[in-house]
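G., before I forget:
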Amino acid sequence: NAGVIQTPRHKVTGKGQEATLWCEPISGHSAVFWYRQTIVQGLEFLTYFRNQAPIDDSGMPKERFSAQMPNQSHSTLKIQSTQPQDSAVYLCASSLGGGGTEVFFGKGTRLTVV
Amino acid sequence: GDSVTQTEGPVTLSEGTSLTVNCSYETKQYPTLFWYVQYPGEGPQLLFKVPKANEKGSNRGFEATYNKEATSFHLQKASVQESDSAVYYCALVPTNSAGNKLTFGIGTRVLVRP
């Protein structure tokens, strides 16, 4: 079990460019989450899929951020027109189900917008 | 909405001394409570969870009791080691929720000096 795999581990983009982050959840896990981590805000929930369907995107900035899960083996987080304040570690996580089952995190993608 | 408040770090202590990281929570639902630990370059990983009030969770010498009356879930360890240096996150999820969206505290950085 390789755990949750996130690629790339580091990404540097210029202001205004697009960034796409990739996540491969643990095989068999039905729930996939995206979180953003910064020093100031800590771990912030962005969005959540269950069986590939979007369930809760209440944490997603309404403009420029989008997430998809085209199949059960990967999810993407896309940020259009990146801004310096988007610089953060983006964490993907997966779990077998709901109600307090263990959530497993990937190592994250560190996005730096210059 | 749900919220978690925990000790502000960094907490610096010497090997062999005791550690307490305070955690309090607010939710209108019945939560499962978690402690996660994050090491440099890694995603958060589960330390332990407690789904029921008045029960204690423990792992690797760390423990915490789910105090429903006080809405607290303080992390304790009697004798820390240098390898315990990490960031510790208190978190909750509504137990009966079909989802599994974790609400995290800000995180407490713990530094253990040899």
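Chain B touches chain A through 25 residues (CB under 8 Å). DSSP finds no helices and twelve strands in chain B.

More on Monday.
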